[in-house]
Amino acid sequence: MPFGLEDYCARVADELAGYLGLADGEGHAPERFSFRFGNVPVEPRGSAMYKLCNLRSQQVTWTVPEDAASTQAVHTTPCTDLAQMILELA
């Protein structure tokens, strides 16, 4: 949890970790965790995606794995807005 963020940001991370099956027995997210974007469950009713979209940029680092068959270089950024990432992937 980066310094200066509101308490609810930690709750958002806890809830997302719960949807991903990464939360501890008390429902808390690990200090650091990672997951593949494709593993974010779309059910129940998109709640996990909603939580993902509510993470602050200070809480997230996006990493795009290199594809051996790719002919274009992969651009990395320390963090990004999820909507921007979706626009770039589309």
Characterization of this structure:
The protein has one domain (7-89). 32% of the residues lie in helices and 0% in strands. It has 3 helices and no strands. Helix 1 runs antiparallel to helix 2 (47-53). The longest helix has 14 residues, at 7-20. The termini are far apart. The mean pLDDT is 78.
Question: What's the arrangement of secondary structure elements?
Answer:
Layout: H1 7-20, H2 47-53, H3 82-89
What's the short story on this structure?
The protein is an all-alpha fold and 90 residues long.
List keywords for this structure.
single chain; 90 residues; mainly alpha; 3 helices; 32% helix
Helix content: 25-40%
Q: Tell me the fraction of residues in β-strands, as a range.
A: under 5%
> How does the major sheet shape up?
none
* Count of all domains: 1
Instruction: Give the overall pLDDT as a whole number.
Output: 78
Poorly predicted ranges = none
Q: Shape from CA axes? A: globular
Calculate the terminal CA-CA distance, rounded to whole Å. Answer: 30 Å
**Total DSSP E strands:** 0
Q: Return the string of H and E elements.
A: HHH
* Category by helix and strand content: mainly alpha
